[in-house]
Each structure stands twice: as C-alpha cells, then as structure tokens.
Amino acid sequence: MAGARIEELVVISGKGGTGKTSLTAAFAVLAGNAVIADCDVDAADLHLILTPRMLERHEFRSGHVAFIRMDKCVGCGICRDLCRFDAIDMAREGNSLPTFAVDPISCEGCGVCVRFCPVETIDFAERVCGEWMVSDTRCGTMVHARLGLAAENSGKLVATVRGEARRIAAKNGNGLIIVDGPPGIGCPVISSVTGATLALVVTEPTVSGEHDLERVLALTKHFSIPTVVCVNKWDINPQMAERIERKAQGADARIAGRIRYDSAVTTAQLRELAVVETDAPSAEDIRQVWDNLGLSKNIPITGGPEKPGYGGLAELAAKVLVEQEQRGKLL
Prior knowledge:
Helices cover 36% and strands 26% of the residues. By secondary structure, the chain is α/β, with parallel strands linked by helices. The protein is elongated, with a radius of gyration of 25 Å.
C-alpha cells in the first residue's frame, strides 16, 4: 500500500480517569486491524487490556548521566562545587583523600562536572531512560513503551513510539493508527497530537473534567489539530454534560457523542474486550462514537474473518448496495 494515506486517531483527555484507555481498546476492536500505539509512556496501561505478545524489545536512550571513576578521583571537590543540581556528594572519607560520587537520579546531564574535572576522571555515558516494544494483539500490531523510574524525555519516547507505529503501518498496509495518548497538556501530550489526523478528547461530567477539557481544547486549537469531544458517563450529571458540550462547540470542537455509565460492564468483560461485542447500552454508545468520528471508511485496512476491520465493513457495504440495486430493478 505504498503511498496510501494513513490516518492517525489520537485519544487524549484533560485529566486521568476519564475512560480514555478503555475507549481506545474498544476502538481497536472495532477497527479490526489498525496499528495501536500506547503513548502514555509515563503510566502505560493499555497492555493490561490488550494482553500483547511481545515480538521486539528495544532500549530507549536519551540524554547523559555523569559517573565518577572513584579509583581515579583526587578529591578536589570542584565537581560538587559546580553542580547546581546538588547531584554530587562525598562518597567516603578516611585516612586518604575524600572521593565523590554522582546520584544518577539527581543528575540532569548538563556536563559541567565533566568539563571542569582537572584529572578527567568523570565519564558521561548515554542514559538508558526506558524501553519500547512491538507486540502482537488480537486487534493488530501494538507499539508501546515504558519510561524508567524518575526518567525524563517522555516526549522523545512518545515520538519514537509514533514513528515506529507509522513505519509498521506503511510496511503492512494499515490505513489507520489508533493512539492512546497521555492525559493533561504537557510535553508528552504535545508530542502525541502533533501532526495527527484527529484528536478525540474524552471527558467526564465533573467540574475538574470541564476545567481540564478547556485546557486541552486550547492546546489542540493552538496546534490546529481537528478535535472531537466525547462525554463519558454523561448520565451521572446530564446538566454538566450539556454544559461541557456547549463549551466544546464554542472552542470549535465537534461532539462525537456520549457514553452512558453502565455498571453491567465488568472488569473481566473489559479485559476480554467483550464490551463492544455485547448488547450492553454503553457498547452501542461506543459504536456510535466510533461512527461519528468521521474517519475515511474507504481506507483499505487489511482484514480477515476474525479481524474484519474496514475491509470487512467495505465488503458488507458493497454487498448492501448490490442488494439495493437489485431490489430497485425488480420494482
């Protein structure tokens, strides 16, 4: 499918806990065989639902961290005096000269200590900040990542995940990438939505949901990303849901639909992705939101009997058209 257009849907939220990841998993089932990317690298959890089978694992390296070779340290203390992040402290002191060590968590990788060490005993290795993986799921290929403890550069890791997802989509002939983005408006969110075809903002009918929705809509508008809004659990507070939708429309966002709260959908059902395959009221709401996204339904996503995707839907639509034409001729 060389040269074909690949659409990218990014599901984000102004705050955590709105149901963003659950909705992303449901969309992955409805799409059939899209490439899935979990860009919530600081707290990745889409794998808990999709239970991926890992195919590849790669280290994510970004920035540097200082390391003092203590056997060569002369104990001058210049590095500690110059470190503005207080990342260097005395390691031991005895009859011999004191030596110093770097706290890798506090080190910001600025390199000042390396530059001014008089005996050049400080190494400046590339920092391993986490890892990213390529896995197989029942819904298609999934690219996901995990940022290390106290590690930074989550925006760069998000860009790595999205880039790999695009490469796989182009290689395998997938016409759609579904991205589970992070909540909020920070660097990883900006890295997730930049250049996307469509951003779906999932919110909830609460005061905090309304406030954080306003912030994320301002973000997508600033970057000129087409945006739609979905109010999850709207029936908990219908008045607030209506107010949120009015504000979203005032910010030039389209309303994709509402999803009602359904206590019948259990955690086990969600883990097995049965929520979109049942007759539960929320399942029909999710299907309606999916249809209202306005994605190009004629994109030839690879599909089969078990993963029909758009291919299966296109075949069904063609069959319906033929039947309608035949009935018209008979009339």
